[in-house]
User: Fold this.
Amino acid sequence: MTFGEKLQRLRKEAGLSQEELAGQLHVSRQAVSKWERNESYPETEKLIRMGTLFGVTLDELLQETRELGKNAGSTEVTEEREEELSMVNRQVEGESSMVNGQVEEKPPTVNRQENESSQTECRESGKICLTVSLASAEDFLTLQKKKTERTAVAAGVMLGSLAFSFLDADLGVILFLLCFIAGMVLVFSVRFMDDPYQRLWNVPLRLESETREKIRKEYEERKGRNTFWNLIGIILIAAGLLICPLLIPAEQEPFDTIVMGAGMILAGAGVYFCACMSGWRRAYQLLLFNENFHNRKGKRR
Assistant:
């Protein structure tokens, strides 16, 4: 039985889906899928967590010919597996060592071939940080884009729905309530989205040089477009909330509702653009300017 087969069996016996297991190990679902297909191999920290989670030893996880939960039968392993097992054992035993009479914890080794395993702990200047790989950085940005777009649509719909409130008919009130409820549903859907990268917002990060270079290049390419649409959003909000009320013709009541309703729709569109661009910029700044990001966060607290 291979490592992937054992992992799949243990996961199913524990009643966990790939996404649920990925959340407990702080990796992406694609990483778990690759492990189960034997296309990649987890690093030491993840193996230790698996052993604790499933109640098995590292020997049972790593030795291909050993059945789970059984000590009898064939115990022969290939030389390659023996080397891997001994290396893992040495890494586990070396998690802590005595330095000047004090215990110094060592970070688990980083498997450079495992791109999906983004959240590898490291230590820099006595602070715990997470090393983010290129694949995980891209997955994080894609997820944040989806969450930001949903949130922006929700905000725009809720503000734009005020256009119906200016109608005297009951239909206007019903449409306003329906749009507002739809916006609230979108907000809660974002709240309950599965996010394996939530921890990235709370701890210092370290990007590999290749990852930082690519993410920085994407940021610079989209920075101008981001600024443009952000300005468009501000203009639409100003036009909807400030200019449209000034355009209401005097003593022409039928046009009042039309102008004010149009103003709310323009303001809603402006909120959508501003919220989208703000969320996009915030996600990139978290990765590229992590230290400044956490300093600003600490000052706000």
Q: What stands out?
A: Confidence is low (pLDDT under 50) at residues 70-78, 91-126. The longest strand covers residues 127-132.
